[in-house]
Specification:
Orotidine 5'-phosphate decarboxylase; binds the ligand O=c1ccn([C@@H]2O[C@H](COP(=O)(O)O)[C@@H](O)[C@H]2O)c(=O)[nH]1; 8 strands; EC 4.1.1.23; globular; alpha/beta; 8-stranded parallel barrel
Length: 276
């Protein structure tokens, strides 16, 4: 999917919400356990209830891999019921030597038909570039993650005297590997105090922002500080939406939770994008 198509969808739905399908078989409503494929049935109903309120779905691949072969089947079936216009992200955090990355790219872009895959930058350009071969398929590179451990390496100051953090060097260098139409960055909502530093280096890129909802990041703050003229944000929320209820009403409650976020996003889009 092109950047233009993504922006069109954002304007049309007045939403930049990405719903995370972190579907944990242990957290499924009891009544779904009789279904042939409870994980798929859960996802199907969540998608049916929320597709008009979000612009992306992000299955976290770990939740499917952990199930073995049947998890991959649930994932494949889930992809088939996501409407065509919605952006799909394989949150897989891959990256390896070149020929192995090529196969990861094939797995997520060809065997499965994802629009984007999350990639770790630690192994450098030759581990990331094999994901950048097809126009319309995106790399979402981990830049400044939402977890406390982001301090361990991403926030290290480089010793070359220019006072940059390692995550800033990752942004600066990797921005040369692809156009803004093929590369996004993961920046946690819990890192709002650094968002201006991020935007100083990558003003035009889309950012995938996890960490609102269950992790406590502020949607208002990240929207105010992080939006650009094409919105430039996909805000992910997983548990706060998909587990809004563990009962028979789970899909309706998920819709209500998504609607609340979408309404708030509508205000920010009007405030920070539409008037530009
Ligand atoms: O820095 C990161 C990168 C990825 N994630 C992933 O996003 C979702 C967040 O789920 P919530 O339930 O909304 O907290 C999950 O799949 C993480 O693995 C992240 O949180 N932070």
């Amino acid at each position: 999917m092109t950047r233009e198509k993504l922006f069109e969808q954002i304007l049309q739905k007045k939403s930049y919400l990405c719903i995370g399908l972190d579907t944990d078989p242990k957290r499924l409503p009891e009544h779904l356990m009789d279904a042939e494929d409870p994980v798929f049935e859960f996802n199907r109903q969540i998608i049916e209830a929320t597709a008009d309120l979000c612009v992306a779905y992000k299955p976290n691949i770990a939740f499917y891999e952990a199930q073995g072969p049947k998890g991959w089947v649930s994932l494949e079936k889930t992809l088939e019921v996501i409407p065509e216009e919605i952006f799909t992200i394989a949150d897989a955090k891959r990256g390896d030597i070149g020929n192995t990355s090529e196969l990861y790219a094939r797995a997520f872009f060809e065997t499965m038909n994802f629009n984007a895959v999350t990639v770790a930058p630690y192994m450098g350009s030759d581990s990331v570039k094999p994901f950048l071969v097809q126009p319309g398929r995106w790399v979402i590179l981990l830049a400044l993650t939402s977890n406390p451990g982001s301090q361990d390496f991403q926030m290290l100051k480089l010793s070359d005297g220019n006072e940059e953090y390692l995550f800033e060097q990752v942004l600066r260098e990797s921005a040369n590997w692809a156009s803004v139409g093929q590369m996004m960055y993961v920046v946690g909502a819990t890192q709002a105090e650094y968002i201006e530093r991020v935007r100083a280096i990558v003003p035009n890129h889309f950012l995938l922002v996890p960490g609102v909802g269950a992790q406590g990041g502020s949607l208002e703050e990240i929207s105010r500080l992080g939006m650009n003229q094409q919105c430039g944000l996909l805000i992910n929320s997983s548990r706060a939406i998909i587990y809004a209820s563990s009962g028979r009403d789970f899909a309706d409650r998920a819709r209500e939770a998504a609607l609340e976020v979408q309404k708030e996003m509508e205000q920010y889009l009007e405030q920070y994008v539409m008037h530009l």
